[in-house]
Amino acid sequence: MAATPTATAESTSRTIGQVPETWRQSLLLSRYQFRDYLRSRRFILMMAIVVAIGAIISFILAYFHGTTTIAGLTSSSDAFYGSFWGGGAYVVIIFAGIIFGGDAIAGEFQNKTGYFLMGLPIRRAAVYVGKFLASLGASIAAMVVYLVILVGNGAVYLGTGFFPFALVESFAIALLYLLALLGAVFLFSSMFKNSLYAVLVVAILFLFGFTILQDLIVALVKIEPWFIIDYARVTIAYPFDATLPPHIATTTTMGPRGTRITTTTYSPTYPEGLAIMAGYFIFTAIAGLFLFEREEFT
Amino acid sequence: MSAGLSLEAVGLTKRFNSFTALDHLNLKVEGSKCLGFLGPNGAGKTTTLKMFTDLIFPSEGEAFINGVSVQRDRKRALSVVGDLIESPEIYGSLSPREALEMSGALRGMRSEEIRARTKVVLEEVKMSEWTDQRFGRFSKGMKQRVNIAAALLSDPEVLILDEPSTGLDPRGMAEVRSIVRSLKSEHRLIFMSSHILSEVVDVCDEVALIDHGRLLFYDTLENVSTRLNANASSVELSFVRPISEETIASQIRPIPGVTTALLVGPQRARLIISGGPETQAQVLERIAGARLGLVSFEPSTSALEELYLREISKGD
Ligand SMILES: Nc1ncnc2c1ncn2[C@@H]1O[C@H](COP(=O)(O)OP(=O)(O)OP(=O)(O)O)[C@@H](O)[C@H]1O
Ligand SMILES: [Mg+2]
After folding, report:
1. Residue ranges of the domains in chain A?
2. Which chain B residues contact residue A120 at CB under 8 A?
3. pLDDT tens digits for A238-256?
4. What is the residue range of B68's domain?
5. Could you tell me if residue B1 is inside a domain?
6. Around Cβ B215, how many Cβ atoms within 10 Å?
7. How many CB pairs under 8 A join A and B?
8. Rounded to the nearest 5°, which phi and psi values hold at B56?
9. Are residues B291 and B213 part of one domain?
10. What is the ipTM metric for this complex?
11. CA–CA separation, A100 vs A96, rounded Å?
């Protein structure tokens, strides 16, 4: 309790309750938000998406098992998880981010639920962080379900080494990617007071917008696209790679009429990939909160 | 003991682009009382209350609750406040019990307190039987009732209510009125916006009137009638059968003490009686004795209404 000179005003007050500290309020709020997510249709939708992806993978594995088509995939745990987790987890993460975060802030304005919360003695930061934690929790739940489906398949096809340490490492990087993505999703959600816009912009950007942007930048401007979150995404698969791709690779091919075409491909180094994600998270979280603090409930 | 209870607006101004919704409002309300905040549509009432609850930010000026600036320390300023602004929505998957539990927990109430108060306030708004149903399917009026319950949950010493009876059926409106009346207590300041004059007359002690973002007056309800017509009281009479203008002219207007007598409906008349309660009693006895079919008389809200209309028309 802070010993402020106005402590007397509180002691004579009839109002029940000593308002908790901001971090406690965030945790409290996240609990109710999370409960709301668990009961919502969107949670069922998300789980349906994850289970559908998992079912397709399981089916393909079972169907082509023993054929040369997928022999490479089940040859080692690195190959297996490198493809399905390293190359697929981001799809689950992006869907989760959109579904659990897209309207998190925008919805408070649009659905007027914000009026219920913001009339309470609570800082906006507590609301922002509380909602972020709830979205994070719900998204992690989706990731875990996907992981369990993969590990289940791994147990069938990989034998004893079905749970490699690289998977733990990769899961941790995926969490970092989730943080960065949710940070960005919350930023866009604070930018628009309309949930639909927020969800649309986030979906377009993360599902293909960033990829196109990255390709354009590399092709036209010919610089390393370190400022685009998609670029860092491949890092999730690095724990499964024996050798990492070269940071900059230049290939020259012969074009028509004897012209030479030089193509440069960039891949982030391991620390660079992590730094990009962390940077995205920090920047978007601060910017989003900054916007939310200044937004009016008109 | 109402030390420390206060709401104060200092030069409070809100501009939306070039439009001034609230123009340098200076208002200080102190002590245990109910202030009716009146004004026509678009006057700036909600705008004012939103700045008192930090939902929007002033272009100029500051709002204080018990001396604490809402703009500088919203958490402390709002810790003593229960508010209801613009009929909020509550997460559809939560029940009233859970919504109140969340609200109480965020306010730092202990779980036993929350449980006990939840029961009390939901009973008060007549929503007990819906305690564990989810919000998703509630009607507008039912939601508003729970919102009122949420505002009352912590038994706050300051209540900021923006047209609390909107969206309610006539019985609901009457219930809200009686809830607000019952809330007036030794240590509570109620700031309630409304454009229903009778509601304000019914429950409030003081009125502030704003229009076009400017404060027109702030005074006690008693002074409102005095302001208009010193030492006069206004009464509305109802009759069982229609009465004519002639009857009024011949039988009512001549009664000593009656300064004005107007027909305001086929079976209704409004009187302004000068003189004290004695004169008023004599006038009413004479009318009752005249066998015109008088069924009721009640103090009319017309003093406030007249002042309201007069002040508002000045601005146009
Ligand atoms: N976000 C906004 N942008 C522009 N103008 C606004 C905005 N919000 C309110 N206004 C204007 O400010 C003025 C005051 O609005 P306010 O909601 O405070 O009125 P009110 O007194 O509460 O009216 P009512 O009785 O209809 O509820 C109105 O003219 C309104 O159009
Ligand atoms: Mg209003």
Report:
1. 21-294
2. 78, 103, 106-107
3. 998 888 888 888 887 777 7
4. 6-223
5. no
6. 21
7. 131
8. -130, 165
9. no
10. 0.83
11. 6
